[in-house]
Protein 1
Amino acid sequence: MVARRPSRPKVKLTSTWLDILLVATGLLFLVLEVIFTGLSWSHIPDKVPSHFGPSGQPDSFGGKWNLIAVPIVQAVFFIALYVLSRFPHIFNYPVTVNEENARRLYRIGKTAVLFLSDGITLLLGLIQWSLIRVSLGQQAYLDRWWLVVLFFVVILVPMVMILFMIRAWRAAS
């Protein structure tokens, strides 16, 4: 038997300047990656790294067309998270959502998803950039800076947003 979630208020949120900035930034990351890949395409060898070991050295290779997968995945994540951000009433929240706090919690939830979208788009773009540089012989291994971006996207943004939600819940209580 499936447990039903209690009904939550549906609140129409208008886009703020931050929402618009986050969507534009994510779109910019995506467009820049596609442009960089397109401009580099004729110089990329037919065999490119497809996997890196713990040391950052390539340990598996595949065809040049494998590089097309990254922008496609990036675009799918960007679009999916943008669409998801428009339905904050279906998110999971660490606090109870009611009429008094719904607007504020939904605003925080929407912003969190848009930050997550930008972080994933940036992360995939940086990985693509590094893959192309390794393929072109401009660097020998996958840089480890992406771990910092990954930490920011996966741990720091959600933690900060949860703290904001708890504060909003306490303020409404």
Protein 2
Amino acid sequence: MTRAAEAREGPEADDGEAGFALVEVLVAFAILALVSLAMLRAFADTTGMIAQGAGREARLDLARSLLEEFRARGALDAGLTRGEAEGIAWAVEVGAVAGAGVPTPEGAARLLRLAVAVAPAPDRPADPAAPLLVTLVLAREGAP
């Protein structure tokens, strides 16, 4: 090999193929930025869904505890009861289930419908027309 050929192959050779061009680096950063933004969006969406699920779980827990509280009473008054717990509005509606045309004897237990509605958001009232949980209970009607 000649000295001229050896000089061209050395570390100081500049044939346009050594290293990255500025344009290539900028394109790589642009791609990295787009991928990072997509991942950030996915993380933000996931965090929002987790918070939404936690709120729904809190409302469901409240509805379950109200249902059990009302079922534990010896006698239930027919009608609508409203309240607020843990910053969440709720409503419980108690109503008699129509029998098969046979009157219920005075003081006897009868089938009652318990409907528990919980507000979907802290700043909104509970809508008894859209209950979260509904069950039937065999209980006496009237104050305990």
Protein 3
Amino acid sequence: MPSISYQTLPGPVGDCLKAASLATTASVPVSSNTSLVFTTGHIGLDLKTGALVNHDAKAEFEAIFDCLDAALKNAGVAAGMAQAYRLVSYLVRAEDETMMHDIFRRKYPGHTPTWATVIVKAINVATMRAEITAEAAYFH
């Protein structure tokens, strides 16, 4: 019987999660040749250094999408975020939603996943504006 597998992104971003005993993604087999891949919530971290990217909203969203893309690709989703079918974003400021969508459309033109946005009082890391999760299908 197939089981759920958990992956950790190599490098500083994955190391941050490993320290908390968390995975970057979980792959859930749904048939002999398809798995659904779920990411953990990602904040804006620099993939090379693990440093917070929060000096401005644009850079933060760029970093979040880069982390999500890398996490999905590490789990076997060849096109990364361009293959995600569902996103959930948690924003501290509702006015950042337009910028977030604009950055996504520029990075992944023509891709239209389902997307829910939740406005929250704060993100777990106090200086961050957003946290985003993604889901994608992995065909193997």
Protein 4
Amino acid sequence: MMHKYQHHKPALDWDDAAFGEGWALYVFQQVEFALTYNYGYWMLGFLAKKPVEIVRYSSVCRAVEAAGQCVSSGISSTKSPPIIQAGLMLAWWGVALPLGFLVVRKIGIEHVGAEGYVPEAKPSKVSEGDPASEVAKL
């Protein structure tokens, strides 16, 4: 598709005969992105042993995503052909899939999430005679 668009600039209008194939590819890519994103956050929930770790893992995930978007924006701002951009995307998938498999294969076995996590009860630091302590007693 990228090669075809590189040689013949499409109008991508409803009346264009090739509109459907370009539009369908775009829709499939958006659905794939949403499903992958949802699956990634589902996995983060299993990796975290405590609820606070979910926030940390999500932050790291978002940072890596932002770095990827910066690289993508940098590549898109060059005059490189779209086929190079598609090749780089597939190369990153080739790197990510085997590494992701190493984590995914242990979900439910080693990574079970916050199953059995019991929050620690912290003693209150409210002193006698403090208005907050009177409210706490109610």
